[in-house]
Amino acid sequence: MYPVSDRFLATLVEAHQPAAEVDLFLTDGRVETLDVIGGSVTVDRSQQCRRQCTVTIPDPALIPRTPTDQLSVYGARLRVSRGVQAGAYRELVPVGVFRLDSVEGDIDEGPVTLSGKSLECVVADDKFTTPYRATGTAVGAITALIQRSIPDASVSSTAADTAIGARTWDIEADPWAAVTELATAIGAECYADADGGFVIAELPDPLAVTPAWTVSVGDGGSYISAARGMSSDGVYNAVLARGENTEAGSAPVSALVVDGDSGSPTYWSGPFGRRPMFYSSSTLLTTGQCTAAATLKLRAAQAPNATANLVSMANPALEPGDVLRVVYEDGTAELHQVQSFPVDLVGGDMAIQTISAKEGA
């Protein structure tokens, strides 16, 4: 979760007004703070561009009408923040930095809607025009790919770096797919965060981290409702990761990671049966790298003990991968990991989709 004050979290469940701020960074160097009357930010870790936004403003003057207007808008960026206000107290958190992709609306009276995607799209759209070869370490190769498209991009990593096998991508290949493959080689994922920087990190284990937020019933609680269920569609309980790099002349390596929890509904040796999935990449040089890649893939592909679509009071500081402690009306509690959610810029509740849950938390 994005760092916020204790007062911010307390205010979320008290009487307050939603607060939003949107800054438009034009290509000619001007910065405009927009008058926001509507809009939302969608955050979803399953999407290539993890964040997407729509912002509604009343003034049609921003609609480009001349070549000069178009030059200042094409390539512009939006910085969107959302928070709370209660009396004189106001606290905002960033919910994304976006490339401005479209501006449309009533040219005479407005309103005007601005749409954008987070900065992964800048890398993804910069397709290779010549074969591209990555070598060295995974973090170094990821950083080079991102800064190839965004030279001043900030790239930070909390994942353990390691050497990778040489990998060449063809003309027209997607550089962000290359970033994703390299991150998987070290058991991590890469994404643009709420500040517009790029992060390389492992998906947290729900049982190994302190919950970022508690969603509970009752006075002072943020819980509104939840739908729970289970599904085995597209579910796997093992991943076999393999690496063979003929370009580097390295020997084939592999690792099989299975759900070894006998209390899990997808236990490898249980009634769910054996349902493996497979992943291969020439960037994998060691058994340890294969194990890390397979572990990451399994965490996303394995059926959880329970899933939930939660409706809570809006918390714009949440991040995908955050672990939530959910306390239901009957007193039972679960740990849930955030997959996606929308942030309404002017109000409303928040529907949170989760990717896993552990009962009895």
TrEMBL record:
Entries under InterPro entries matching the protein: DUF5047
Domain DUF5047 intervals: 39-165
Pfam families reported for this sequence: DUF5047
Protein name: DUF5047 domain-containing protein
Originating organism: Streptomyces lavendulocolor
